[in-house]
Specification:
By secondary structure, this protein is of the alpha/beta class. The protein is built from eleven helices and ten strands. The strands form three sheets. The protein has a five-stranded parallel β-sheet with strand order 6-2-1-7-8. Strands 3-5-4 form a three-stranded antiparallel β-sheet. Strands 9-10 form a two-stranded antiparallel sheet. The structure holds S-adenosylmethionine (SAM).
Length: 287
Protein backbone atom coordinates (compact mmCIF):
# COMPACT_ATOMS: atom_id res chain seq x y z
CA UNK A 1 0.00 0.00 0.00
CA UNK A 2 1.78 3.24 -1.11
CA UNK A 3 2.21 5.81 1.66
CA UNK A 4 1.75 9.55 0.98
CA UNK A 5 4.31 12.10 2.29
CA UNK A 6 1.77 13.34 4.86
CA UNK A 7 1.05 9.80 6.08
CA UNK A 8 4.76 9.02 6.25
CA UNK A 9 5.37 12.09 8.44
CA UNK A 10 2.53 11.19 10.80
CA UNK A 11 3.68 7.58 11.23
CA UNK A 12 7.34 8.38 11.63
CA UNK A 13 6.61 11.10 14.22
CA UNK A 14 4.47 8.63 16.15
CA UNK A 15 7.17 5.92 16.08
CA UNK A 16 9.83 8.41 17.10
CA UNK A 17 7.80 9.82 19.97
CA UNK A 18 7.03 6.40 21.45
CA UNK A 19 10.19 4.39 20.77
CA UNK A 20 12.93 6.87 19.91
CA UNK A 21 13.43 5.12 16.56
CA UNK A 22 14.17 7.57 13.74
CA UNK A 23 12.82 6.63 10.34
CA UNK A 24 14.75 8.65 7.81
CA UNK A 25 13.36 10.17 4.64
CA UNK A 26 13.55 7.62 1.85
CA UNK A 27 12.43 4.79 4.16
CA UNK A 28 8.80 4.98 3.03
CA UNK A 29 9.07 1.39 1.77
CA UNK A 30 9.94 0.26 5.33
CA UNK A 31 6.70 1.69 6.73
CA UNK A 32 4.70 0.31 3.80
CA UNK A 33 6.22 -3.18 4.13
CA UNK A 34 5.97 -3.41 7.87
CA UNK A 35 2.62 -1.75 8.57
CA UNK A 36 0.31 -2.53 5.64
CA UNK A 37 -0.87 -5.85 7.11
CA UNK A 38 -1.57 -4.24 10.50
CA UNK A 39 -3.41 -1.42 8.76
CA UNK A 40 -5.69 -3.86 6.91
CA UNK A 41 -6.16 -6.09 9.97
CA UNK A 42 -7.36 -3.05 11.92
CA UNK A 43 -9.96 -2.14 9.32
CA UNK A 44 -8.13 0.92 8.00
CA UNK A 45 -8.14 1.99 4.34
CA UNK A 46 -5.00 4.12 4.61
CA UNK A 47 -2.23 5.19 6.98
CA UNK A 48 -4.12 8.33 8.08
CA UNK A 49 -6.82 6.10 9.53
CA UNK A 50 -4.19 3.89 11.14
CA UNK A 51 -2.63 6.98 12.71
CA UNK A 52 -6.02 8.11 14.04
CA UNK A 53 -6.55 4.67 15.59
CA UNK A 54 -3.09 4.87 17.12
CA UNK A 55 -3.91 8.20 18.76
CA UNK A 56 -7.06 6.74 20.28
CA UNK A 57 -5.36 3.48 21.30
CA UNK A 58 -4.51 2.75 24.92
CA UNK A 59 -1.73 0.28 24.19
CA UNK A 60 -2.22 -2.90 22.17
CA UNK A 61 -2.16 -1.34 18.68
CA UNK A 62 0.71 0.94 19.63
CA UNK A 63 2.70 -2.06 20.87
CA UNK A 64 2.07 -3.93 17.60
CA UNK A 65 3.09 -0.96 15.45
CA UNK A 66 6.27 -0.33 17.45
CA UNK A 67 7.05 -4.05 17.40
CA UNK A 68 6.69 -4.09 13.62
CA UNK A 69 8.94 -1.07 13.23
CA UNK A 70 11.87 -2.56 15.18
CA UNK A 71 14.82 -4.18 13.44
CA UNK A 72 15.69 -7.28 15.47
CA UNK A 73 18.80 -8.29 13.54
CA UNK A 74 21.17 -10.15 15.87
CA UNK A 75 23.41 -13.21 16.01
CA UNK A 76 25.32 -15.37 18.41
CA UNK A 77 28.65 -13.91 19.60
CA UNK A 78 28.05 -10.90 17.34
CA UNK A 79 31.38 -9.27 16.54
CA UNK A 80 34.35 -11.62 16.99
CA UNK A 81 36.74 -9.13 18.56
CA UNK A 82 34.12 -8.06 21.09
CA UNK A 83 33.35 -11.60 22.22
CA UNK A 84 37.08 -12.45 22.30
CA UNK A 85 37.45 -9.48 24.69
CA UNK A 86 34.56 -10.78 26.75
CA UNK A 87 35.92 -14.27 26.96
CA UNK A 88 39.54 -13.24 27.60
CA UNK A 89 39.08 -10.12 29.74
CA UNK A 90 35.59 -9.09 30.81
CA UNK A 91 34.32 -12.50 31.94
CA UNK A 92 37.44 -13.19 34.08
CA UNK A 93 36.99 -9.67 35.52
CA UNK A 94 33.34 -10.38 36.35
CA UNK A 95 34.28 -13.77 37.80
CA UNK A 96 36.72 -12.01 40.15
CA UNK A 97 33.86 -9.75 41.21
CA UNK A 98 31.67 -12.82 41.74
CA UNK A 99 34.23 -14.08 44.28
CA UNK A 100 33.78 -10.86 46.33
CA UNK A 101 30.12 -9.98 45.71
CA UNK A 102 26.90 -11.82 46.38
CA UNK A 103 25.62 -11.13 42.84
CA UNK A 104 27.06 -9.94 39.56
CA UNK A 105 24.43 -8.12 37.54
CA UNK A 106 24.53 -7.90 33.74
CA UNK A 107 22.01 -6.10 31.49
CA UNK A 108 21.52 -6.74 27.81
CA UNK A 109 19.52 -3.57 27.15
CA UNK A 110 18.45 -4.19 23.53
CA UNK A 111 18.35 -7.97 23.72
CA UNK A 112 16.32 -8.71 20.59
CA UNK A 113 15.70 -12.47 20.39
CA UNK A 114 18.15 -13.31 23.18
CA UNK A 115 21.35 -14.30 21.38
CA UNK A 116 23.45 -11.60 23.09
CA UNK A 117 22.30 -12.42 26.64
CA UNK A 118 22.65 -16.18 26.17
CA UNK A 119 26.08 -15.71 24.52
CA UNK A 120 27.25 -13.86 27.65
CA UNK A 121 25.73 -16.54 29.92
CA UNK A 122 27.51 -19.32 27.98
CA UNK A 123 30.82 -17.45 28.17
CA UNK A 124 30.47 -17.09 31.95
CA UNK A 125 29.94 -20.86 32.33
CA UNK A 126 32.81 -21.48 29.93
CA UNK A 127 35.04 -19.07 31.88
CA UNK A 128 34.37 -20.92 35.14
CA UNK A 129 35.48 -24.18 33.50
CA UNK A 130 38.56 -22.72 31.80
CA UNK A 131 39.76 -20.93 34.94
CA UNK A 132 39.02 -23.96 37.16
CA UNK A 133 36.74 -21.91 39.45
CA UNK A 134 33.99 -23.34 41.68
CA UNK A 135 30.86 -24.15 39.63
CA UNK A 136 28.78 -22.44 42.34
CA UNK A 137 29.96 -19.04 41.04
CA UNK A 138 27.57 -19.40 38.11
CA UNK A 139 24.55 -18.94 40.37
CA UNK A 140 25.89 -15.52 41.39
CA UNK A 141 25.24 -14.20 37.88
CA UNK A 142 21.96 -12.51 37.13
CA UNK A 143 21.40 -11.33 33.56
CA UNK A 144 18.51 -9.01 32.77
CA UNK A 145 17.67 -8.88 29.06
CA UNK A 146 15.15 -6.31 27.81
CA UNK A 147 13.76 -5.10 24.51
CA UNK A 148 10.85 -2.97 23.36
CA UNK A 149 9.73 -5.71 20.96
CA UNK A 150 7.31 -8.21 22.55
CA UNK A 151 7.73 -10.69 19.69
CA UNK A 152 11.52 -10.66 20.10
CA UNK A 153 11.14 -11.15 23.88
CA UNK A 154 8.74 -14.03 23.25
CA UNK A 155 11.36 -15.90 21.17
CA UNK A 156 14.11 -15.05 23.66
CA UNK A 157 12.09 -16.32 26.61
CA UNK A 158 11.33 -19.59 24.84
CA UNK A 159 15.06 -20.21 24.41
CA UNK A 160 14.24 -22.22 21.28
CA UNK A 161 15.93 -21.48 17.98
CA UNK A 162 15.59 -22.82 14.46
CA UNK A 163 18.50 -24.36 12.58
CA UNK A 164 18.73 -21.11 10.59
CA UNK A 165 18.93 -18.91 13.71
CA UNK A 166 21.51 -21.26 15.24
CA UNK A 167 23.63 -21.23 12.08
CA UNK A 168 24.18 -17.48 12.53
CA UNK A 169 27.31 -17.34 14.66
CA UNK A 170 26.93 -20.37 16.95
CA UNK A 171 30.11 -22.38 17.56
CA UNK A 172 29.75 -26.16 17.29
CA UNK A 173 31.42 -26.70 20.67
CA UNK A 174 28.94 -24.37 22.37
CA UNK A 175 25.98 -25.84 20.50
CA UNK A 176 26.93 -29.32 21.71
CA UNK A 177 27.50 -28.18 25.27
CA UNK A 178 24.70 -25.71 25.89
CA UNK A 179 21.74 -26.79 23.72
CA UNK A 180 19.34 -29.73 23.55
CA UNK A 181 17.97 -30.77 20.17
CA UNK A 182 14.15 -30.68 20.24
CA UNK A 183 12.85 -31.96 16.92
CA UNK A 184 13.95 -29.42 14.30
CA UNK A 185 14.80 -26.80 16.94
CA UNK A 186 17.59 -26.26 19.48
CA UNK A 187 16.74 -25.31 23.04
CA UNK A 188 19.14 -23.61 25.41
CA UNK A 189 19.87 -25.82 28.44
CA UNK A 190 18.07 -24.92 31.70
CA UNK A 191 21.32 -24.13 33.59
CA UNK A 192 22.07 -21.32 31.12
CA UNK A 193 18.46 -20.25 30.61
CA UNK A 194 17.87 -19.73 34.32
CA UNK A 195 20.61 -17.10 34.49
CA UNK A 196 18.66 -14.79 32.17
CA UNK A 197 15.40 -12.92 32.85
CA UNK A 198 13.70 -11.38 29.82
CA UNK A 199 11.36 -8.38 30.04
CA UNK A 200 9.79 -5.96 27.65
CA UNK A 201 11.24 -2.52 28.34
CA UNK A 202 11.49 0.77 26.44
CA UNK A 203 14.86 2.52 26.67
CA UNK A 204 12.97 5.83 26.70
CA UNK A 205 11.63 4.91 30.14
CA UNK A 206 13.13 5.37 33.60
CA UNK A 207 16.02 2.96 34.30
CA UNK A 208 16.04 3.28 38.10
CA UNK A 209 13.59 0.37 38.50
CA UNK A 210 16.36 -1.99 37.30
CA UNK A 211 18.95 -1.07 39.95
CA UNK A 212 22.72 -1.13 39.51
CA UNK A 213 24.73 -3.25 37.06
CA UNK A 214 28.28 -4.51 36.83
CA UNK A 215 28.10 -4.78 33.05
CA UNK A 216 25.65 -3.17 30.62
CA UNK A 217 25.47 -4.13 26.95
CA UNK A 218 23.59 -1.59 24.86
CA UNK A 219 24.73 -2.67 21.43
CA UNK A 220 23.52 -1.77 17.96
CA UNK A 221 20.45 0.15 19.11
CA UNK A 222 21.58 3.73 19.74
CA UNK A 223 22.24 4.03 15.99
CA UNK A 224 18.46 4.22 15.52
CA UNK A 225 18.04 7.18 17.90
CA UNK A 226 18.42 10.97 17.75
CA UNK A 227 21.50 12.62 19.27
CA UNK A 228 19.34 13.95 22.09
CA UNK A 229 18.08 10.49 23.01
CA UNK A 230 21.58 8.97 22.74
CA UNK A 231 22.75 11.59 25.25
CA UNK A 232 19.85 10.79 27.59
CA UNK A 233 20.44 7.02 27.40
CA UNK A 234 24.19 7.31 28.00
CA UNK A 235 23.34 9.38 31.09
CA UNK A 236 20.87 6.77 32.35
CA UNK A 237 23.34 3.91 31.79
CA UNK A 238 26.05 5.86 33.61
CA UNK A 239 23.77 6.35 36.63
CA UNK A 240 22.91 2.63 36.61
CA UNK A 241 26.52 1.38 36.46
CA UNK A 242 28.50 0.27 39.50
CA UNK A 243 31.56 2.52 40.03
CA UNK A 244 33.76 -0.31 38.69
CA UNK A 245 31.20 -1.31 36.06
CA UNK A 246 31.61 -1.61 32.31
CA UNK A 247 29.48 -0.63 29.33
CA UNK A 248 29.59 -2.23 25.89
CA UNK A 249 28.13 -0.61 22.77
CA UNK A 250 28.19 -1.59 19.11
CA UNK A 251 31.43 -1.46 17.12
CA UNK A 252 30.17 1.54 15.11
CA UNK A 253 28.92 3.42 18.19
CA UNK A 254 30.71 5.78 20.59
CA UNK A 255 29.69 7.96 23.56
CA UNK A 256 32.17 10.61 22.35
CA UNK A 257 30.33 13.83 21.53
CA UNK A 258 27.35 12.86 23.70
CA UNK A 259 28.84 12.63 27.18
CA UNK A 260 32.14 12.96 29.03
CA UNK A 261 31.01 10.56 31.78
CA UNK A 262 32.71 7.54 30.19
CA UNK A 263 36.28 6.60 29.54
CA UNK A 264 37.38 4.04 26.97
CA UNK A 265 38.94 0.79 28.21
CA UNK A 266 40.66 -1.29 25.53
CA UNK A 267 40.31 -5.01 26.18
CA UNK A 268 42.27 -6.85 23.52
CA UNK A 269 41.05 -5.33 20.25
CA UNK A 270 37.69 -4.16 21.60
CA UNK A 271 36.70 -0.83 23.10
CA UNK A 272 34.58 -0.94 26.25
CA UNK A 273 33.66 1.97 28.50
CA UNK A 274 33.78 2.63 32.23
CA UNK A 275 32.68 5.61 34.34
CA UNK A 276 35.28 8.39 33.83
CA UNK A 277 38.11 8.18 36.35
CA UNK A 278 37.34 4.59 37.36
CA UNK A 279 39.50 2.53 34.92
CA UNK A 280 38.76 -0.97 36.23
CA UNK A 281 41.58 -3.47 35.95
CA UNK A 282 40.35 -5.61 33.08
CA UNK A 283 43.22 -7.68 31.78
CA UNK A 284 42.96 -8.62 28.13
CA UNK A 285 43.24 -12.34 27.60
CA UNK A 286 43.91 -13.63 31.09
CA UNK A 287 43.81 -17.21 29.97
C1 LIG B 1 19.65 -4.49 15.87
S1 LIG B 1 18.96 -5.14 17.34
C2 LIG B 1 20.44 -5.37 18.31
C3 LIG B 1 20.38 -6.64 19.13
C4 LIG B 1 21.65 -6.96 19.92
N1 LIG B 1 21.93 -5.97 20.93
C5 LIG B 1 22.82 -7.12 18.99
O1 LIG B 1 23.72 -6.26 18.99
O2 LIG B 1 22.86 -8.11 18.25
C6 LIG B 1 18.25 -3.68 18.04
C7 LIG B 1 17.18 -3.99 19.07
O3 LIG B 1 16.83 -2.76 19.73
C8 LIG B 1 15.47 -2.82 20.05
N2 LIG B 1 14.96 -1.47 20.32
C9 LIG B 1 14.69 -0.47 19.44
N3 LIG B 1 14.20 0.60 20.07
C10 LIG B 1 14.14 0.29 21.39
C11 LIG B 1 13.71 0.98 22.56
N4 LIG B 1 13.23 2.23 22.50
N5 LIG B 1 13.78 0.34 23.74
C12 LIG B 1 14.25 -0.93 23.82
N6 LIG B 1 14.67 -1.64 22.76
C13 LIG B 1 14.63 -1.04 21.55
C14 LIG B 1 14.84 -3.49 18.84
O4 LIG B 1 13.59 -4.06 19.13
C15 LIG B 1 15.90 -4.52 18.45
O5 LIG B 1 15.61 -5.80 18.97
Amino acid sequence: MPISPQEFDLIRSFVHEHSGILINAGKEYLVENRLTTLMVQNGCDNFIQLHQKLLADTGPLRTKVLDAMTTNETLWFRDDSFFAALSGGVVPYLLKKAQRQTTVRVWSAAASTGQEAYSVAMLVEDGIRRLGLPAALLAKFSILATDISPSAIFIATSGRYSQLAISRGMRQEFLDRYFDKQGMAFEIKPEIKKLVTFKQFNLKDDFTQHGTFDFVLCRNVLIYFSDELKKEIYGKIHRGLAPDGLMAIGASESPRGYTTSFEQVMVGGAALFCPAGALPKVQPHLS
